[in-house]
Amino acid sequence: MRSTATIVSTGTDYAHRIEVGGHLLTADEPRPLGGQDAGPAPFDLYLASLAACTAITLRMYARKKGWELGELRARLTLSRDADDKLHVHRELWASGTLDDAQWQRLLDVAARTPVTKAMREGAVITSTRGT
Q1: Nearest-CA neighbor of 24 among 36, 6, 10?
Q2: Is the pTM above the cut of 0.85?
Protein backbone atom coordinates (compact mmCIF):
# COMPACT_ATOMS: atom_id res chain seq x y z
CA MET A 1 0.00 0.00 0.00
CA ARG A 2 1.26 3.46 -0.83
CA SER A 3 -0.60 6.74 -0.38
CA THR A 4 0.51 10.31 -0.83
CA ALA A 5 -1.01 13.45 0.62
CA THR A 6 0.12 16.96 -0.22
CA ILE A 7 -0.72 20.07 1.76
CA VAL A 8 -0.32 23.71 0.76
CA SER A 9 -0.94 26.82 2.81
CA THR A 10 -3.73 29.13 1.71
CA GLY A 11 -2.37 32.38 3.11
CA THR A 12 -5.26 32.51 5.60
CA ASP A 13 -3.91 31.89 9.08
CA TYR A 14 -3.87 28.12 9.63
CA ALA A 15 -6.06 26.98 6.73
CA HIS A 16 -4.36 24.53 4.37
CA ARG A 17 -5.49 22.71 1.24
CA ILE A 18 -4.90 18.96 1.23
CA GLU A 19 -4.94 16.71 -1.81
CA VAL A 20 -5.12 13.00 -1.11
CA GLY A 21 -6.36 10.19 -3.32
CA GLY A 22 -7.54 12.69 -5.92
CA HIS A 23 -9.74 14.47 -3.37
CA LEU A 24 -9.40 18.01 -2.06
CA LEU A 25 -9.90 18.85 1.59
CA THR A 26 -9.32 21.88 3.76
CA ALA A 27 -7.86 21.67 7.24
CA ASP A 28 -7.91 24.54 9.71
CA GLU A 29 -8.08 25.30 13.39
CA PRO A 30 -11.22 26.56 15.14
CA ARG A 31 -11.59 30.29 15.75
CA PRO A 32 -10.69 30.10 19.48
CA LEU A 33 -7.29 28.71 18.44
CA GLY A 34 -6.67 31.42 15.84
CA GLY A 35 -8.03 29.67 12.77
CA GLN A 36 -11.03 30.47 10.60
CA ASP A 37 -12.74 27.07 11.07
CA ALA A 38 -12.57 26.59 7.28
CA GLY A 39 -12.29 22.82 7.70
CA PRO A 40 -11.69 20.09 10.24
CA ALA A 41 -8.78 20.44 12.64
CA PRO A 42 -6.03 17.79 12.49
CA PHE A 43 -7.41 15.65 15.32
CA ASP A 44 -10.88 15.85 13.75
CA LEU A 45 -9.36 14.38 10.58
CA TYR A 46 -7.70 11.71 12.74
CA LEU A 47 -11.09 10.69 14.14
CA ALA A 48 -12.70 10.87 10.69
CA SER A 49 -10.05 8.51 9.32
CA LEU A 50 -10.75 5.96 12.02
CA ALA A 51 -14.51 6.35 11.62
CA ALA A 52 -14.31 5.84 7.85
CA CYS A 53 -12.10 2.77 8.16
CA THR A 54 -14.40 1.31 10.81
CA ALA A 55 -17.56 1.80 8.75
CA ILE A 56 -16.06 0.52 5.52
CA THR A 57 -14.41 -2.51 7.15
CA LEU A 58 -17.61 -3.48 8.98
CA ARG A 59 -19.66 -3.09 5.81
CA MET A 60 -17.20 -5.32 3.90
CA TYR A 61 -17.24 -7.92 6.68
CA ALA A 62 -21.04 -7.96 6.94
CA ARG A 63 -21.39 -8.30 3.16
CA LYS A 64 -18.98 -11.25 3.17
CA LYS A 65 -21.04 -12.90 5.93
CA GLY A 66 -24.38 -12.08 4.27
CA TRP A 67 -25.47 -9.91 7.20
CA GLU A 68 -27.71 -6.91 6.59
CA LEU A 69 -26.35 -3.97 8.58
CA GLY A 70 -28.86 -1.47 7.26
CA GLU A 71 -27.76 2.03 8.17
CA LEU A 72 -24.46 1.92 10.03
CA ARG A 73 -23.56 4.82 12.31
CA ALA A 74 -20.57 5.45 14.52
CA ARG A 75 -19.69 8.18 16.99
CA LEU A 76 -16.05 8.51 17.97
CA THR A 77 -14.94 10.62 20.91
CA LEU A 78 -11.36 11.71 21.50
CA SER A 79 -10.17 12.67 24.98
CA ARG A 80 -6.98 12.87 27.01
CA ASP A 81 -6.42 11.44 30.44
CA ALA A 82 -4.52 13.04 33.34
CA ASP A 83 -1.23 11.82 31.83
CA ASP A 84 -2.15 13.48 28.49
CA LYS A 85 -2.56 10.08 26.80
CA LEU A 86 -5.10 10.02 23.96
CA HIS A 87 -8.19 7.85 24.28
CA VAL A 88 -10.69 7.16 21.50
CA HIS A 89 -14.08 5.68 22.30
CA ARG A 90 -16.10 4.27 19.43
CA GLU A 91 -19.89 3.70 19.64
CA LEU A 92 -21.55 1.75 16.83
CA TRP A 93 -25.16 1.36 15.72
CA ALA A 94 -26.77 -0.53 12.86
CA SER A 95 -30.44 -0.51 11.88
CA GLY A 96 -30.26 -4.11 10.63
CA THR A 97 -31.38 -6.97 12.83
CA LEU A 98 -28.22 -8.43 14.36
CA ASP A 99 -28.02 -10.83 17.28
CA ASP A 100 -25.60 -10.53 20.21
CA ALA A 101 -23.10 -12.95 18.64
CA GLN A 102 -23.04 -10.94 15.40
CA TRP A 103 -22.54 -7.71 17.35
CA GLN A 104 -19.70 -9.26 19.32
CA ARG A 105 -18.04 -10.32 16.06
CA LEU A 106 -18.46 -6.82 14.60
CA LEU A 107 -16.88 -5.29 17.71
CA ASP A 108 -13.97 -7.74 17.39
CA VAL A 109 -13.54 -6.76 13.74
CA ALA A 110 -13.73 -3.05 14.64
CA ALA A 111 -10.87 -3.56 17.09
CA ARG A 112 -8.70 -4.85 14.23
CA THR A 113 -9.43 -2.51 11.32
CA PRO A 114 -6.32 -1.37 9.43
CA VAL A 115 -6.46 2.20 10.76
CA THR A 116 -7.19 0.99 14.31
CA LYS A 117 -4.11 -1.21 14.17
CA ALA A 118 -1.95 1.57 12.73
CA MET A 119 -3.09 4.00 15.42
CA ARG A 120 -2.47 1.47 18.19
CA GLU A 121 0.89 0.25 16.90
CA GLY A 122 2.15 3.61 15.70
CA ALA A 123 4.13 4.26 12.56
CA VAL A 124 7.68 5.13 11.67
CA ILE A 125 7.51 8.80 10.69
CA THR A 126 10.48 10.53 9.09
CA SER A 127 10.96 14.03 7.73
CA THR A 128 13.37 15.48 5.19
CA ARG A 129 13.82 18.84 3.56
CA GLY A 130 12.35 18.92 0.04
CA THR A 131 14.54 19.81 -2.89
Answers
A1: 6
A2: yes
